[in-house]
Design a protein that fits this description.
Blueprint lengths: L1 E6 L2 H13 L4 E4 L4 H4 L7 E5 L4 H10 L8
Antiparallel strand pairs: 1-3, 2-3
Protein name: DUF2007 domain-containing protein
Pfam families: DUF2007
Length: 72
C-alpha cells in the first residue's frame, strides 16, 4: 500500500474516501486512533492508503477535485 494523502483535517479524509469509493478504489485510513496519544487536539496527521496499482488513478481523482497532494 502507498500513502495517498496525509492531513490533520478529518473532513478531507472523509471527502477523499467518498471520491475514491465512487470510482471503486479501495482505501484504508491509518493513524485513526492516534488521538489517544495526542489528547484529542488533532495535531497528528491521519494517512489515507491505497493499493500500489491504484495510486496513479487515485492521485488524479484527488488532484481533479482540488486536493493539494504532497509529492512522495
Amino acid at each position: 500500500m502507498k500513502q495517498l494523502l496525509r492531513t490533520t483535517d478529518p473532513t478531507q479524509i472523509i471527502y477523499a474516501k467518498a471520491l475514491l469509493s465512487g470510482e471503486d478504489i479501495d482505501c484504508f485510513e491509518m493513524d485513526v486512533h492516534m488521538s489517544i496519544l495526542e489528547g484529542g487536539i488533532g495535531i497528528l496527521p491521519r494517512r489515507l492508503m491505497v493499493r500500489d496499482d491504484d495510486l496513479p488513478q487515485a492521485r488524479r481523482i484527488l488532484k481533479d477535485n482540488d486536493f493539494d497532494l504532497e509529492e512522495l
